[in-house]
Design a protein that fits this description.
Keywords: Flavoprotein, FMN, Monooxygenase, Oxidoreductase. Residues 359-383 are annotated as: Disordered. By secondary structure, this protein is an alpha/beta fold. It has one domain (4-354): Luciferase-like domain (TIM Barrel), CATH 3.20.20.30. It has helices spanning 27-39, 56-66, 83-96, 111-115, 123-142, 180-189, 200-216, 237-256, 271-282, 293-297, 311-324, 336-346, 348-382; strands at 4-9, 44-47, 71-76, 101-105, 147-150, 155-159, 172-176, 192-196, 224-233, 285-286, 290-291, 306-309, 328-331. The strands form two sheets. The chain has an eight-stranded parallel β-barrel, surrounded by eight helices. The structure holds flavin mononucleotide.
C-alpha cells in the first residue's frame, strides 16, 4: 500500500518554540503553508480545533478553494454543533474541495477545555456521544429519505439533507485517542485511527488494541493507522542533535516565561498524553531516532515526540513504522513552513521510494507463491 503523508494546516506562524508574529488568523500565512505542503509532496493537512482558535471549517474551505490537490483533514468536536448541521457543513466542504475532505472527530481529552464551550459530560460519556454523532453524520451523508433519530444524546425527526458529499459512499472518518473508551468508539467507527508517535513496541500494542476493538465491533475490515511525530532534521547527525537540544531549550523557555497558555493543573487527563509522559519518564531515546524530551517539555501535549537525525535516518525510522503496519505518517516541525518544505524535499522522497520497493518485493513474492501453488495443483492433476 502506498504510504500517505499528513502535515499541519495552521492559521498563523506560532509554535511551541516561536511566538506568532501577527493575529490568530493570518490569511496569507494559512495559504502559504498549505501551498508549501502541496508543492512538496504531502497528501493532506490537519486543521486542528481549539476552543478559542479560528474556526477550522471556513479556513479549510478557503485553503481548498485555492489549491488543487492537497487534501483536508478537518478536526471537529461534537459538542460545538448539532450533527445535522455538521453533516451539511462537511458535505458542503467536500463539494468545495471536489472530494478532498476527511473529518477527524475529536472527543476531547480535557474537562476544563471542553467546559470552555459548555461541554459538561465526563470523558467516557463524551466518547459515547462521539460514537452516536459519527453514526448520525454517516447516515445523513448517505440517506436520501427523511429519517428520525432517537438516541441517548440526540433526538430529531423528519431530517434529510439536500447536500451530499462528492466522495461516495462518503468521506472518511478519522479518530484519535488512547483510552479504552477511545479504542472502543474508534475501533467501531473510524476509517483512520490516529496515534501519537511512541516507541515501536508501544505503537504495536496500540495497533493491536485498535484491531481487537474493530473486530469486537463486528467489523471485517480494520481502520488504517496513522502515527504522528515532530521530526528534527539536519544535514549531519551532529547538527540534528544540536538542533534538537536548541528546540527543547526554546520550548522550555517559552513555557517558563508563562507566554504559552496551558490547561490548569499539572497532570494531563487524557490517556494519550499520560502515555507520552510515562514513556519520557522511562527514557529519552528509543529505537532508531525517537527522542522524548520534546514531549516531556510540553507535558505530553499531543503530537510531541521527536524523530532526530539526518533525512536518511528519519526516513528509515518512519519506514520502521510502515513495516509495523502504519499507513499514514504525520509530521510537523517547529518552524511550520520551513520544516514542511525541508521534510517534503528531503524525507518524503526517500520514504516513498523505499515503500514502493517493499511493495514491489511483496508483490513479486506473492506472484511467485501463486505460480508455485498453480504448479503444484497442475502436478497433482496431471500426476
Ligand atoms: C492526530 C490527532 C489529532 C488530534 N487533534 C485534536 C484537536 O485538534 N483538538 C483537540 O482538542 N484534540 C485533538 N486530539 C485529541 C483526541 O481527539 C482526543 O480527544 C483525546 O486524545 C482523548 O483522550 P484519550 O487519549 O484519553 O482517549 C487529536 C488526537 C490525535 C491522535
Amino acid at each position: 500500500m502506498p504510504v500517505e503523508f499528513l502535515g499541519i494546516a495552521a492559521t498563523n506562524d506560532g509554535s511551541e518554540t516561536t511566538p506568532r508574529s501577527g493575529g490568530a488568523f493570518d490569511k496569507e500565512y494559512t495559504l502559504r503553508l498549505g501551498r508549501a505542503h502541496e508543492d512538496h509532496g504531502w497528501d493532506r493537512v490537519l486543521f486542528a480545533y481549539g476552543s478559542g482558535s479560528p474556526d477550522p471549517a471556513p479556513a479549510a474551505a478557503y485553503l481548498a478553494s485555492h489549491l488543487d490537490r492537497l487534501q483536508i483533514l478537518l478536526a471537529h468536536r461534537p459538542n460545538v454543533s448539532y450533527p445535522t448541521f455538521a453533516a451539511k457543513t462537511f458535505a458542503t466542504l467536500d463539494r468545495i474541495s471536489d472530494g478532498r475532505l476527511t473529518v477527524h472527530f475529536i472527543t476531547g481529552g480535557n474537562d476544563h477545555e471542553q467546559g470552555r464551550e459548555g461541554d459538561t459530560l465526563t470523558k467516557d460519556e463524551r466518547y459515547a456521544r462521539t460514537r452516536e454523532y459519527i453514526r448520525i453524520v454517516k447516515k445523513i451523508w448517505t440517506t436520501h429519505e427523511p429519517f428520525d433519530h432517537e438516541g441517548e444524546h440526540y433526538r430529531f425527526h423528519d431530517f434529510v439533507s439536500d447536500v451530499f458529499p462528492v466522495q461516495q459512499p462518503r468521506p472518511n472518518v478519522s479518530f484519535g485517542g488512547s483510552s479504552e473508551a477511545a479504542y472502543g468508539a474508534g475501533g467501531a467507527e473510524a476509517d483512520i485511527y490516529c496515534l501519537w508517535g511512541e516507541p515501536l513496541a508501544k505503537t504495536a500494542e496500540q495497533i493491536e488494541r485498535v484491531k481487537a476493538a474493530a473486530k469486537a465491533a463486528g467489523r471485517t475490515d480494520v481502520p488504517r493507522i496513522q502515527v504522528a511525530f515532530r521530526p528534527i532534521i539536519a544535514p549531519t547527525e551532529e547538527l540534528a542533535w544540536e538542533k534538537a537540544h536548541r528546540t527543547v531549550g526554546a520550548i522550555r523557555e517559552r513555557r517558563e516565561s508563562g507566554l504559552v497558555r496551558h490547561h490548569r493543573g499539572q497532570a494531563p487527563e487524557n490517556a494519550g498524553s499520560q502515555r507520552l509522559l510515562a514513556i519520557a519518564e522511562a527514557g529519552e531515546r528509543y529505537d532508531r531516532a525517537l527522542w522524548t524530551p520534546t514531549a516531556a517539555a510540553t507535558g505530553g501535549a499531543g503530537n510531541s515526540n521527536a524523530l532526530v537525525g539526518t533525512p536518511e535516518t528519519v526516513a528509515q525510522a518512519l519506514l520502521d513504522y510502515y513495516d509495523l503496519g502504519v499507513d499514514i505518517l504525520s509530521a510537523r516541525g517547529y518552524d511550520l513552513l520551513g520544516d514542511a518544505i525541508d521534510f517534503g524535499r528531503h524525507v518524503i522522497p526517500i520514504v516513498r521510494e523505499e515503500v514502493a520497493k517493499r511493495d514491489a518485493e511483496r508483490e513479486a513474492k506473492r506472484a511467485g507463491e501463486h505460480a508455485a501453488g498453480t504448479d503444484r495443483t497442475l502436478t497433482a492433476v496431471n500426476g
